[in-house]
Write a structure and sequence with these properties.
Chain lengths: 111, 124
């Protein structure tokens, strides 16, 4: 199973909004609402920031939001903070043969 | 504080074996769904496999890239999960993370607890 496709990098100035796309297929994102997003700072473990497409775990700022349309999921950061500079990965359930698949990862750069 | 701590990484020759451990604390480990995820240096996350408890038995699943070579197990009495890696290849070189996938009453809440990772290098 190929990884989900994400842009290599997105950038924005503090206060601006950025959106990261995560493109899959009708076998993963298009079929299941088990899309999650993870933030990873250099040298650190990933951190869950969105699950079930749109839900935020306790403690995650509301500027992070998720959505899905067809086979593409998206993560929006509304009002960039300097500390949002990190790598972001989407992840989707892909059925009982493939199970779970991550995205290729997107580096968010805060200008 | 909920915590996962991996150990057992190191340098191993191609074709060799290594067993990673994942120690859980701060949450009800028994019955939890545990994944192993790896990340090669400078690369993205790759799902390796998972173990969950279903009807008093353990069920495992693996990525195609490791199926038949890697085995996930657990000892709920010790709050431990394991990743036995055999027939290791250079492509298996990565940091290996264990992570809890929170599931409550059939509802999924994502991979919400991660360890710090343990590095595995496969090289002669």
């Amino acid at each position: 199973q190929s990884a989900l496709t994400q842009p290599r990098s997105v950038s924005g100035s503090p206060g601006q909004s950025v959106t990261i796309s995560c493109t899959g297929t009708n076998s993963n994102i298009g079929l299941y609402n088990y899309v999650s997003w993870y933030q990873q700072h250099p040298g650190k473990a990933p951190k869950l920031i969105i699950y079930d497409v749109t839900k935020r775990p306790s403690g995650v700022p509301p500027r992070f939001s998720g959505s899905k349309s067809g086979t593409t999921a998206s993560l929006t950061i509304s009002g960039l903070h300097a500390e949002d500079e990190a790598d972001y990965y989407c992840c989707s359930f892909a059925g009982h043969d493939i199970h779970w698949v991550f995205g290729t990862g997107t580096q968010v750069v805060v200008l | 504080e909920m915590q996962l701590v991996e150990s057992g990484g190191g340098l191993v020759q191609p074709g060799g074996s290594l067993k990673l451990s994942c120690a859980a604390s701060g949450f009800g480990f028994s019955g939890s769904l545990i994944h192993w995820v790896r990340q090669a240096s400078g690369k993205g996350l790759e799902w390796v496999g998972r173990i969950e408890v279903l009807a008093n038995s353990f069920e495992t699943a693996y990525a195609a890239s490791v199926k038949g070579r890697f085995t996930i197990s657990r000892d709920d009495s010790k709050n431990m999960a394991y990743l036995q890696m055999n027939s290791l290849k250079a492509d298996d070189t990565a940091v290996y993370y264990c992570t809890r996938h929170r599931v409550v009453s059939g509802l999924q809440y994502g991979m919400d607890v991660w360890g710090q990772g343990t590095a595995v290098t496969v090289s002669s």
